[in-house]
Design a protein that fits this description.
The protein is α/β, with parallel strands linked by helices. It has 15 helices and 25 strands. The structure holds malonyl-coenzyme A (MLC) and adenosine monophosphate.
Length: about 500
């Protein structure tokens, strides 16, 4: 029995989703998702964990598909709307998806898949029909695969069961006191936990309303805030930074109206990357006194540590373990360190994912021998609040809230004509947290590379947020750029270099 669906039955006449110019009740969502289930099942009793990939903008359609897949016993594989074909094909191949569903706008992009032995469903062809009994599902069934980049190899599919997802939702609903009268604006992509779990699923679990703005636009966000219905907001630090920039451009009257509207919010949360104290402080003044609640999470576990809903929210800190979740700080041998010493955050609890899809070795490596998830994030417990100190791998970049693997980008760059070698790093940046930067060694240094052309080529291979924004070409790189120390040297070079390419 899926508790999320059972909860919805208690709220049938309440508003579940606002999307486009329409609103949808929980009853409509229950009915429409059951139609999706039937269309997927085609008379079979259960999808038995078939992978169903879907590519639609954040919208009511996304939700009815997600619920329809779950209710039919399938594994939901949401695809990224910003990915080029190659990245999507990787996910389809890796999950061995049986079916792909997409809205009209993405049909052309996905058309090469039509030649394959895969069921291709256009969203507008999913019609209402007779609803027969849906399977009775146990919570330990696999529910969702989300792709995440690591320090080795290609992106890995993070498999979460329904029980994992429920635990992730429940700890947030309890800690942040979600209630059916809540109304949240969702401007995040729906192929990562921040948008899927923290916003969409927590709202629907609680009988609250989730409103979509499919593409982030700071001006439109403020218009919606001024409408007076939204009382909750969650975003990555880059978005708060962009909102502040937009706010600064308004005249005093609009600024005052926004401040008044924000003042009435119940809660505003930041996460997915470190929140700069300057952003927290500026937002406090813009919002008429709200201290952003910063929390910490990861695709493999949902949220794990959070500043308190009641009580002191300490700038520069991520807070304390969420209810039901155990945290320890450990050394490289997975030995627990004394309080106050710097080490890796390790996590245990029902929220922690099941496995990387068909990668038993990678799964094993990400857990300690005694079963703790090794996050790769370094932290200390500082006067009762955890504080992140960085990552233990220089090859993981966080930009705009997205986790990016330097190694994956390097692999693509090396395929470009005249690039002999390269080193990709994240360079600290006020707006993006880090920006992706590439240092190139040319096979023939006399033959220059046109960076504009290179960027256009990269955009066909990588999503835009992974395409390096800064470049230097040089005769030599700090030796052994794959190593920790020399990549740090490369970051310094970028920090000091005048950017000639922007
Ligand atoms: C885009 N651009 C970037 C960039 N991304 N520049 C530098 N660094 C980046 N990372 C540039 C583009 O090249 C383009 O410029 C311009 O910005 C607009 O591109 P866009 O794609 O339209 O950007 P935009 O929609 O404004 O995206 C910004 C954003 C987005 C902040 C809204 O990055 C976003 O939605 N981030 C959230 C990701 C997220 O949900 N993460 C959670 C992961 S879960 P040009 O010149 O090329 O036109 C997780 C666990 C947890 O982390 O704890 O939550
Ligand atoms: P992802 O794999 O995309 O889910 O990203 C998870 C990573 O985001 C974590 O391992 C952290 O490195 C980072 N992260 C999430 N929240 C925070 C935060 N509040 N402060 C710093 N880093 C964070």
């Amino acid at each position: 029995m899926l508790q999320l669906i059972e909860n919805a039955k208690q709220h049938q006449n309440r508003l579940a989703i606002r999307s486009g110019s329409r609103s949808y009740t929980y009853q409509e969502l229950l009915t429409d998702s059951a139609y999706v289930s039937q269309a997927l099942l085609q008379g079979r009793p259960d999808l038995s964990e078939e992978r169903i990939a879907f590519l639609v903008d954040p919208s009511y359609d996304y939700v009815r598909l997600q619920w329809g897949i779950w209710r039919a016993g399938g594994i939901a594989v949401p695809l990224c709307t910003k990915h080029p074909y190659q990245s999507i094909e990787y996910v389809i191949d890796d999950t061995q998806a049986s079916t792909i569903i997409c809205s009209e706008g993405y049909e052309e992009l996905l058309s090469p898949l039509k030649d394959r032995d895969i069921r291709f469903i256009s969203l507008d062809k999913l019609s209402a029909g007779e609803v027969e009994a849906l399977p009775d599902l146990s919570n330990d069934r696999r529910a969702m695969i989300l792709y995440t980049s690591g320090t080795t190899g290609s992106p890995k599919g993070v498999v979460s069961t329904h029980a994992n997802i429920q635990a992730q939702i429940q700890s947030l609903v309890t800690s942040w006191e979600w209630h059916q009268v809540d109304h949240i604006l969702n401007i995040l992509p729906l192929h990562h936990v921040h948008g899927i779990i923290n916003i969409l699923s927590c709202a629907l679990w609680s009988g609250a309303c989730c409103e979509f703005l499919p593409k982030f636009d700071a001006d439109k966000v403020f218009d919606i805030f001024l409408g007076g219905q939204v009382n909750l907001f969650m975003a990555v630090p880059t978005i708060y930074y962009k909102l502040i920039g937009q706010y600064d451009q308004y005249d005093e009257d609009r600024q005052q109206a926004i401040t008044d509207a924000l003042h009435n919010f119940r809660l505003m949360v930041s996460g997915s990357a470190a929140l700069p104290i300057s952003v927290l402080e500026r937002w406090r003044s813009i919002s008429g006194g709200h201290t952003l609640l910063e929390r910490y999470g990861m695709t493999e576990m949902g949220m794990a540590i959070s500043n308190p809903y009641h009580g002191e929210r300490r700038p520069g800190h991520i807070g304390q373990p969420l209810s039901g979740i155990q945290i320890r700080i450990a050394d490289e041998q997975d030995q627990v360190l004394p309080i106050g010493e710097k080490g890796e955050i390790q996590v245990k609890g029902p929220n922690v994912f099941k496995e990387y899809w068909q990668k038993p070795e990678a799964t094993k490596k990400t857990f300690s021998a005694d079963g703790w998830l090794k996050t790769g994030d370094m932290a200390i417990l500082d006067d009762g609040y955890y504080r992140i100190l960085g990552r233990n791998s220089v090859d993981i970049i966080k930009s705009g809230g997205y986790k990016i693997s330097a190694l994956e980008i390097e692999e693509v760059l090396r395929k470009y004509p005249n690039i002999k070698d390269c080193g990709v790093v994240g360079v600290p940046d006020d707006e993006w947290g880090e920006v992706v930067a590439a240092s190139l060694i040319l096979s023939d240094p006399a033959e220059e590379i046109d960076i504009k052309e290179l960027r256009s080529w990269l955009k066909t291979k990588l999503p835009s947020y992974q395409v390096p924004k800064r470049y230097i070409t040089q005769e030599d790189l700090p030796r052994n750029v794959m190593g920790k120390v020399t990549k740090k040297a490369l970051v310094k070079i970028f920090e000091e270099a005048e950017d000639k390419n922007q």
